Amino acid sequence: MRARHGFTLLELLVVISIITLIMLMVTALAGSLKSGPPLEQAAGGIATLAQRVRQTSATQRVHGEIVLDYKNDRAIALARQQHVTFAFEDAPGSKKAAGSNGIVGDYVNGATPLGSRQFELRDGSACEIPDTSAAFRIPWLAQYEVEGDFEGAGLAFDFFPMGNGAGRVVDFGSAFSLTVSEVVQGACRLMLNSGGTQTVAETLVAGYRWCTVEIAVSRYGVRLYVDGRMTEKLPSQDSPVPPAQSAVNFAGFPCRIDNVQFFSLVSSQVFEIGPSVQLLADGVWPEIELEGKAEDIYDVDAKADPRRTGGKDLSLSGEGLPDTRPPAIRHVFFDDTGKLDPAIHPGAVRIALVTQGNSGPQRMIVTVHPLGAVTTQEVERFDWEPEPTPEAPAPASPAANKPASNGSAK
Questions:
Q1: Could you give the C-alpha distances from 48 to 33, 75, 207, 252, in angstroms and in order?
Q2: CB 300 within 8 Å of CB 328
Q3: How far is CA 159 from CA 118, 205, 226, 260, 356, in A?
Q4: From 196's CA, which of 120, 227, 234, 371 has a CA 20 to 30 Å away?
Q5: pLDDT tens readout for residues 186-220
Q6: What are the strands of the beta sheet with 360-368, ordered from one edge?
Q7: pTM over 0.85, yes/no
Q8: Which of helix, strand or coil describes residue 271?
Q9: In terms of DSSP bridges, do strands 229-233 and 126-129 run parallel, antiparallel, or are they unpaired?
Q10: Would the CA dihedral through 279, 299, 295, 265 be positive or negative?
Q11: What gap in Å lies between CA 161 and CA 140, rounded to an integer?
């Protein structure tokens, strides 16, 4: 019996035809979804954006986020574009550290890789920075500042503090610096600074114990994660991340580090929701938003009204407006499993959309559930809107009030 090798021309044509048919079906389906009503398009676009971010978070094991820009009615998916990782599996006494993508780091002034089991290590080997003069340095490369979609920079690593006083842990030029601001009964408190915007971690780091640290700075927020718990400070509106054409330096505080990941924050996708559909903040009536009377309340740099007292902004006391100014930027955070970050979101996140229909405002809610699923639902009214006033019954006619006649003559 003769052995058969390869495919015949007819079989190849059949396979190509099947693939072409599938592509045409997918294209037709995508076209039909895109040609739907604007409100459904906007809700579907946000849902798709959320699904992509959570999928990236789960597959790459990184935190993810969506930025909701209420001022400009758009949603931005911030992705982490990884540049280099270091696991410090180098030979003892090495002067150079082998990283991913062919990037080489430097052990300086006594910093060294540790692999011996006599030391407490995270996994495999780690880098030890034994005193304030030692350092581990990741060299500057132009690829770190991504052109076009660059929004910021970040760093994630395992941290084992061994110092007993305040000091610098790591910096990336003028983009950011992380320091130990104080030591409380042997535990460290970390502080992140980026362009003058500071955030101090609420979680203390125990001395001589491993923890995870993540830094993410962009014009949308300065964020510091310690063991998954985030603290954040919002910079002034549209404040760019300071450029940093310099090396990443771990130096100034005795510690061990492991599993270093250096990345850029990039806008992997920007979804323009408007102009016919608009994002709606809690407390704002749809009619107010559609008439353009709510634009100023989203300005995070707006000056406080001089009559403001307590927690209420009297300049927003008109009907259909909230008591206080909502932020112009809102975040939806995902953890490294693709779920809503439970340390930040105690429950589901609801995103309100509104557009002008033929008979008045049309409303829709996009809900991101704790496990990451995303659903959309058209609603008659939002929770913060008052219930419609019931119509008063029509007055009775005089004939209806007249006593009925029995038909007898007097």
A1: 12, 11, 43, 44
A2: yes
A3: 18, 9, 10, 9, 52
A4: 227
A5: 899 999 999 888 999 999 999 999 999 999 998 88
A6: 277-280, 349-357, 360-368, 374-379
A7: no
A8: strand
A9: unpaired
A10: negative
A11: 25
